[in-house]
């Protein structure tokens, strides 16, 4: 009776869920629920409408999509090893947001936003030690950092200690005495960031352990966030080893450029002509956005000059950094947005960064509590380590140790996980790790093995616990299969079937015609004066090639005139309304440019050759193949739509 009651209750629950999520479509024996259809419909419509006409139109596209997926499944695409690996990778990515502690995650997101309100100016001292270092090496590093801290507490200057022999192991400390400048959330590793934000101004913090080693830090200042800024710059390079004459010439050059800017010349043009920053000059000097909420930082002198600009398009006086002389122009400034505006981007950073591990650890702790986790591994792991008499386990050639008695190490969700299974894991995951002893190797791998099992078990239940995850996984599954079968049945076929493409092209040749065209040399000048010089040069010597004309006109600047020789359709924008004649035509102005057109030949309307229409012909042939293929699929696969459920989506 107890079993029957449970079965009856389960059937009732399933019936209630089925009523909440009815079937909108069936393809062969597979069902598409209302929630799955709605999720895809909303994702593919920026302005979704739920009237009958809109739903009818979209459901036809959806049917075609599902028919192709059904064919891919019928042909066994979902069993192909490479696609199975691809789908498993997507599943892992999609599962991540479901395998974190939401409460902890929200707290980390809020904490990050609160920290982004301020910027910290700090210095640090680093003593390096590997994350997986032996206890001996770890203790040695800790004792070194504490000895450095004691020197500071006894009155030595923090920066001098950082730069001293046997001081900080950060290579830059010799020059900057450990100073990191101003930073905000996400610009340092999380443990260091936390220590910096929790240390009062003027105080010493640490030691704090990160993946790099042990740090001491001193907080010099804490100021309100300055926001994110996008800039462009012109740089004249000067190095420490530059001679006095080179420095003087560079300073004179930047002053001359500044004078041109003051006279109204274009900043981007001057950057392209004169800037020594090869990474930005072709972009008119534009640099990546830096500041609050970004991962980009600039040297302090550059940041100070940029933030001193109060309006967009304002540029600075020349100033000096370690790289040379600069003029910076403000392009855009964004103060820190509200929490609601930034929550999504911060959440993404939290998930990808080292904060994400904290959220996952909290999630695992909750799972352990919910599933009556019990660990009794300590004694058995010590016995296992005692059997490893050499360093073979970290050289990658350990053969394992399997005692006759196989004790369980932990119990989770009523299932026990034993020592032999863990030893199999160790043997399979041996690595060549420097200065990591067997004890450390076994214990760290045990934590990873145990947590991976707990997460994998929870991941296996996601489809049942979260319909949204199930639908999203189905969407990725269908998308991967659709791409692969379309590639094989349509896209690749349209290119590889040369005879079929040729026949299709000839059958539909009326669709591939050249309109009336003109074969011409087109010169585009930046001013009327330069256009007149270009026209006069061509008239004075009609044997000059376009390259020779451009070389003469652009002898003092490559920006004077551009040239293009081609066959142009008369309907192209710059030719609309123009009456052309053979030879050189009058100069005309359009959108601040001046054009000189030399007509070489008028070309009448004619049929295109396949090589001339290949792109559009292949696209049309693909559409033709797809239409024929869909007709076959409609005959092969049975598909039904429940219109009553479909139209209820709007309810």
Q: What is the end-to-end distance?
A: 41 Å
Amount of helix: 40-55%
Shape: flat
Mean model confidence by pLDDT: 90
Largest sheet: 5 strands, antiparallel
What is the CATH top level name of the domain at 118-224? Answer: Alpha Beta
Task: State the low-pLDDT regions, or none.
Answer: 1-19
CATH fold category name of the domain at 118-224? Chitinase A, domain 3
Query: Which oligomeric state applies?
Result: single chain
Number of DSSP strands?
21
Over the alpha carbons, how many angstroms does the gyration radius reach? Answer: 35 Å
SS element count, helices: 25
Q: Which architecture name of the domain at 118-224 does CATH use?
A: Roll
Derived from helix and strand composition plus strand pairing, the structural class reads alpha+beta
Estimate the strand proportion. 15-25%
What does this structure look like?
With 651 residues, the chain is of the alpha+beta class. Among the domains are: 118-224, Chitinase A, domain 3 (Roll), CATH 3.10.50.40; 230-335, Chitinase A, domain 3 (Roll); 372-459, no CATH class; 514-606, Chitinase A, domain 3 (Roll), CATH 3.10.50. Helices cover 49% and strands 19% of the residues. The strands form six sheets. Strands 15, 16, 17, 18 and 19 form a five-stranded antiparallel β-sheet that branches. Strand 12 (408-412) and strand 13 (415-418) form a beta hairpin. Helix 5 (102-115) crosses helix 13, helix 5 (102-115) packs antiparallel against helix 14 (355-370) and helix 20 (467-496) crosses helix 24. The longest helix is centred in the C-terminal third of the chain and has 30 residues, at 467-496. It is flat and about 95 Å long. The model is unreliable at 1-19 (pLDDT under 50).
């Amino acid at each position: 009776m107890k079993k029957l009651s449970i079965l009856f209750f389960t059937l009732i629950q399933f019936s209630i869920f089925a009523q909440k999520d009815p079937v909108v479509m069936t393809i062969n024996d597979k069902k598409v629920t209302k929630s799955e259809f709605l999720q895809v419909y909303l994702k593919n419509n920026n302005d979704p409408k739920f009237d009958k006409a809109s739903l009818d139109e979209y459901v036809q596209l959806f049917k075609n999509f599902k028919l192709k997926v059904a064919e891919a499944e019928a042909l066994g695409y979902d069993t192909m090893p490479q696609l199975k690996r691809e789908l498993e990778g997507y599943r892992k990515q999609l599962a991540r947001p479901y395998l974190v502690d939401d409460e902890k995650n929200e707290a980390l997101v809020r904490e990050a936003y609160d920290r982004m309100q301020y910027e910290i100016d700090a210095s640090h001292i680093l003593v390096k030690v590997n994350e997986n270092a032996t206890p001996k090496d770890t203790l040695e590093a800790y004792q070194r950092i504490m000895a450095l801290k004691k020197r500071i507490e006894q009155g030595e200057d923090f920066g001098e200690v950082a730069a001293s022999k046997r001081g900080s192991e950060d290579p830059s400390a010799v020059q900057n005495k450990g100073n990191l400048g101003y930073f905000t959330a996400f610009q340092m590793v999380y443990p260091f960031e936390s220590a910096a934000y929790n240390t009062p101004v003027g105080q010493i913090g640490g030691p704090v352990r990160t993946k790099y080693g042990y740090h001491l830090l001193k907080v010099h200042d804490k100021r309100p966030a300055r926001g994110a800024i996008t800039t462009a710059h012109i740089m004249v390079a000067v190095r420490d080893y530059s001679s006095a004459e080179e420095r003087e010439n560079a300073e004179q050059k930047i002053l001359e450029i500044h004078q041109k800017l003051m006279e109204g010349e274009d900043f981007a043009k001057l950057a392209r002509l004169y800037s020594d920053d090869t990474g930005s000059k072709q972009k008119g000097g534009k640099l990546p956005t830096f500041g609050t909420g970004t991962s980009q930082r600039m040297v302090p002198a550059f940041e100070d000059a940029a933030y001193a600009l109060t309006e967009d398009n304002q540029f600075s006086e020349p100033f000096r950094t370690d790289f040379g002389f600069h003029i910076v122009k403000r392009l855009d400034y964004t103060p820190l947005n509200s929490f609601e505006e930034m929550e999504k981007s911060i959440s993404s950073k939290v998930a990808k960064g080292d904060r994400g591990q904290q959220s996952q650890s909290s999630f695992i702790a909750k799972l352990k509590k919910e599933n009556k986790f019990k660990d009794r591994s300590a004694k058995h792991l010590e016995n296992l380590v005692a059997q490893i008499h050499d360093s073979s386990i970290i050289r990658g050639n350990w053969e394992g140790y399997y005692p006759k008695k196989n004790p369980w190490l932990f119990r989770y969700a009523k299932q026990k996980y034993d020592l032999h299974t863990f030893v199999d894991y160790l043997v399979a995951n041996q690595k060549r790790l420097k200065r990591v002893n067997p004890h450390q190797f076994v214990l760290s791998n045990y934590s990873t093995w145990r947590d991976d099992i707990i997460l994998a078990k929870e991941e296996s239940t996601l489809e049942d616990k979260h319909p949204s995850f199930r639908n999203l996984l189905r969407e990725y599954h269908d998308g991967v299969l659709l791409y692969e079968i379309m590639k094989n049945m349509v896209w690749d076929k349209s290119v590889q079937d040369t005879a079929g493409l040729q026949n299709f092209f000839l059958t539909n040749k009326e669709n591939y015609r050249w309109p009336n065209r003109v074969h011409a040399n087109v010169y585009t000048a930046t001013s009327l004066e330069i256009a007149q010089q270009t026209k006069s040069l061509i008239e004075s010597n009609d044997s000059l090639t376009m390259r020779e004309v451009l070389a003469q006109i652009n002898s003092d600047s490559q920006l004077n005139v551009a040239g293009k020789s081609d066959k142009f359709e008369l309907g192209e924008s710059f030719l609309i309304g123009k009456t052309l004649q053979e030879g050189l035509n009058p100069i005309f102005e359009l959108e601040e440019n001046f054009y000189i057109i030399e007509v070489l030949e008028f070309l009448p309307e004619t049929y295109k050759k396949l090589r001339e229409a290949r792109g559009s012909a292949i696209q049309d042939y693909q559409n033709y193949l797809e239409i024929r293929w869909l007709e076959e699929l409609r005959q092969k696969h049975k598909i039904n739509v429940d219109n009553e459920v479909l139209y209820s989506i709007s309810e």
